[in-house]
Specification:
Blueprint: H1 16-30, E1 45-50, H2 54-66, E2 70-77, H3 80-94, E3 105-107, H4 111-116, E4 122-125, H5 132-141, E5 145-148, H6 156-171, E6 176-178, H7 186-196, E7 203-212, H8 226-232, H9 238-241, H10 244-247, H11 250-260, E8 266-272, E9 287-293, E10 299-306, E11 313-320, E12 323-326, E13 331-334, E14 338-339, H12 349-365, H13 373-392, E15 396-397, H14 398-404
Parallel strand pairs: 1-2, 1-4, 2-3, 4-5, 5-6, 7-10
Antiparallel strand pairs: 7-11, 8-9, 8-15, 9-10, 11-12, 12-13, 13-14
The protein binds nicotinamide-adenine-dinucleotide.
Length: 433
């Protein structure tokens, strides 16, 4: 499996062992261990990991490194071979923090339900995002605190579902944290505060990028049904991943929303499938370009690309009347020129991956659980509306995407079988629904 390319040098996305080593060092260096006030007694965080892939296992290791009295308690995955691969690796990586017994290892479409029926009190949702809304709802109904990887929905109906689950969680005093890790990244926290304090004046425009290389793909095996092939190659199917503008580029779409403290009003977008034309790559696009309009006439452009041997660029540039903030670069130029002392971009990301769990666990132990469900759902909608605009060739308004769109890509699947592949979207022909 090929790791996601990370320009600037970062943590290979699907290599959880390396991630563990990096974040453990980062944690020690940054003194991020929880205060330990609640470290004794019955406040143990018992994690149920649902989706034992690269990031799920990485997130479990990050959570274990983020606070005291945390253990991995249950594991659930759709595929036995994935479980067999990851189980011993997690045991080795976590040592005494590994407390998964054979009775708390679950495989199959109902594995998540069986993991939720255990005594785990903290659930990590890290399956392909197409399953996220249903899994989140089940976790909240089961009374668990949730850490859920981004994206959290791939269609407007899923976004609304997640927002509703977030409200249910609030009513039950449950915490929900999302894997949009830059919101816990010391350098970003420093810069966003400065921008919100007016250091670059009034924001007039922004640019964001997620131009990167291609990702992994698994060749089809004869024994696989259509559905198994799609789920094992989930990146390439919009109902499972949301397309790469939602699955990957969402990080810098999210940071831009955060810097601007706003959601877009409308967008137009283009995109296509220029190089990745083989049906082995499902039906997603390989590039997008978006013009967003934000409140007060603020213009935001975004582009993303998954192509090899091209210039990679990830990040966001926020333009104000008095200066420019480069989020990934960690700098402000202009009237109040500033270089953050915190490690910028990928250099600081290991800390962020741990801190997102530490922040949630601290809030749970303090009795004031954080809940990011609405925020991250709306960030996902920001990517989804651009994908809808690119697929259809139509302008998409926030009002339409949030409140009127009937697009529902969620599927209630209980067994492997046939699953037709959606046609590649064709602007001007694919309807906006
Ligand atoms: N925050 C980040 O930087 C970051 C980085 C990588 C991935 N992610 C996100 O994490 C999620 C997982 O990505 P990954 O790279 O670990 O993918 P992966 O393919 O390595 O792992 C997904 C796992 O989920 C399992 N799975 C699939 N359907 C399931 C189901 N219905 N029930 C239970 N298990 C199921 C798969 O068998 C697999 O083991 C995605 O949403 C992805 O976008 C976030």
């Amino acid at each position: 499996m090929m790791a996601e390319s990370k320009p600037g040098g970062g943590i290979p996305r699907r290599d959880f062992l390396k991630t563990t080593a990096t974040v453990t060092a980062a944690t020690m260096a940054g003194g991020l261990l929880s205060s330990g006030v609640w470290a004794q007694g019955d406040d143990k965080i018992r994690i149920a990991l649902i989706g034992c892939g690269g990031r799920g296992c990485g997130a479990a290791a990050n959570a274990a490194a983020s606070a005291e009295n945390v253990e991995l308690y249950a594991m659930a995955d759709l595929f036995q071979d994935h479980m067999d691969d990851k189980l011993p690796k997690m045991q080795e990586a976590l040592g005494e923090q590994f407390n998964v017994t054979p009775e708390r290892c679950f495989v199959g479409f109902d594995a998540y339900q069986r993991a939720l029926a255990t005594d785990a009190n903290y659930v990590i949702l890290a399956t392909p995002p197409g399953f996220r809304p249903q899994h989140l709802r089940a976790a909240v109904e089961a009374g668990k605190h949730v850490f859920m990887e981004k994206p959290v929905a791939v269609c407007p109906t899923g976004v609304r579902h997640v927002i509703e689950s977030g409200e249910m969680a609030t009513a039950k005093s449950l915490g929900i944290m999302a894997g949009t890790q830059y919101r816990h990244h010391p350098c970003f926290l420093d810069l966003v505060k400065r921008v919100h304090d007016g250091q670059i004046g009034r924001i007039t425009a922004a640019q964001s990028y997620y131009n990167t290389g291609t990702l992994w793909k698994h060749g089809r095996q004869e024994s696989w049904t259509d559905l198994e092939w799609q789920i094992r190659n989930w990146l390439y199917f919009t109902w499972l991943a949301g397309d790469h503008i939602v699955e990957q580029a969402i990080h810098h779409i999210d940071t831009t929303n955060w810097f601007l403290n706003a959601w877009p009003v409308e967008c137009v977008a283009t995109g296509g499938r220029q190089l990745r034309t083989d049906p082995a790559y499902g039906h997603i696009y390989d590039h997008f370009s978006v013009d967003y309009l934000y409140p007060d006439g603020v213009k935001v452009t975004h582009m993303c690309r998954q192509m090899d041997n091209c210039e990679n660029r990830l990040g966001e540039i926020i333009i104000g009347t008095d200066g420019v903030c480069d989020g990934m670069g960690g700098t402000i130029t202009g009237k109040n020129a500033y270089t953050s002392p915190e490690k910028p971009g990928f250099q600081g990301i290991g800390v962020a991956y741990v801190r997102e769990h530490g922040d949630l666990i601290d809030s749970i132990r303090a009795g004031r659980p954080l809940n990011e469900a609405r925020e991250v759902a709306l960030t996902c909608l920001t990517g989804i509306m651009a994908r809808m605009a690119a697929y259809t060739g139509k302008k998409v308004t926030w009002e339409f995407a949030l409140n009127e769109s009937k697009l529902n890509l969620m599927k209630d699947i209980t067994a492997f079988g046939d699953m037709p592949v959606d046609e590649v979207a064709a602007p001007g022909r694919t309807p906006l629904v």
